[in-house]
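User: Need the bound-state model for manganese (II) ion:
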Amino acid sequence: MIDITTNLEVQQAIQDKKPIVALESTIISHGLPFPENHKTAIALEEEVRKQGAVPATIAIINGCIKVGLETEDLEILADPKSQVEKISRRDLPNIIQTRGHGATTVAATMIIAAKSNIQIFATGGIGGVHRGAQTSFDISADLQELVKTNVCVVCAGPKAILDLNLTMEYLETNGVPVLGYRTTELPAFWSRNSGIYGILPYKTASEIASFLNLKWGFPLAGGALVTNPVSDADEIPELQVRAWIEDALNETKSQKVTGKEITPFILDYIRLASKGRSVKTNISLVKNNAKLAAQIAIELKKCN
Ligand code: PSU
Ligand code: MN
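Assistant: Bound-state model below.
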C-alpha cells in the first residue's frame, strides 16, 4: 500500500467534512516562471480559503505523496534549482521508488485526489490532443484520466496550443461532459473564444454541483470538465495568440523537443514572445478557476 500524507489543514477538513479543492503542482514547477510560480501557488490556496473551502495542493516530495503541502514543500517545488520531475500517471511509481520530488499533472493529481475522496480540482488549462497528433500520437494522459477518474476538473479550457476540435471529439467519444461556466463557447485558455460550441452552458456553481451529483449518483463513472473563461480584462484575444503559438510549435520541431517537455517548452516560448503577458493571463485564469472550484465544492457538500 502506498501512503498518502495529508497536512494538518486537510486532515482537519476531512474530519469536519469540509469542502476540499485539489490543486496541481506541474503549473508551479513547469508551467510558470520563478518567482511568480511561488506567489501564485500561495495565492491559489488563499483564494480557495477565502471562498470557504480548504485547499489541497498535491505533489510528491522525497517520494512521498502529499495532499496539502507545507511551506517548505511549496518552496522546493517553485525553486528552479530543485530537481522536480513532471509526473503523470505512468511516472507515479518510479518517483516514489526513487524518492524524488514530483510535480503532478492534471492526470496524476486527479488520481491522487480521487484516492483521497476529493471530487473538485482546479487547474489552468488541461492537456489534450496536440496538433498533428495524426502522426505524432501526442495525446495528453489528462484526457484518459478524465474518462475514468471521478473528479471534476475546473479549467479555462484546453491549452490553446492544442487541436481543440480533436480534443473535444476525444472527450465526446469517451463520454466526458464539458460544461461552460456562463458561456456557450469553449474558452481557449488565454482567450475567451475558440469558435467551438456544443458545450453545456451552466450559470451557477450550485447547478454545476447538482449536475455532478446526478452524474455520479446515477452512477456514471468518470470525470467532468468545467470550462471557465478568463476575465475580459486579462484575456489575450485569439488572433493575437495565434502567431505566437505557430512560432512556438515550429520551434519545438526545429529544436526537436519531444514528449513531456513539449508543453512546458511552448508555454515558456509564449511567455517570452508575449513579453510576460501570457503569464499574467495564466495567473489570472487559474485564480479564477480556484475560486469557481471552491464554490462548486461548497455546493456539492450541500447535495451529499
Ligand atoms: N495549466 C496551466 N499550466 C500548466 C498546466 C496546466 O496553466 O502547466 C499543466 C497541467 O499539469 C497539465 C499539463 O496536466 O500542463 C499538460 O501537460 P501535457 O500536455 O504534457 O500532458
Ligand atoms: Mn504529450
